[in-house]
Amino acid sequence: MSAPEDRLAELGLSVPEVPTPVAVYVPAVTSGDLVFTSGQLPMKNGELMYTGKVGGDIGPEEAKEAAQQCALNAIAAVKSVIGDLDRVAQVVKVVAFVASTPDFTGQPQVANGASELLGKVFGDAGIHARSAVGVPVLPLDAPVEVEIVVRVSQ
Question: Degrees (nearest 5) of the Cα angle 23, 16, 48?
Answer without folding.
Answer: 50
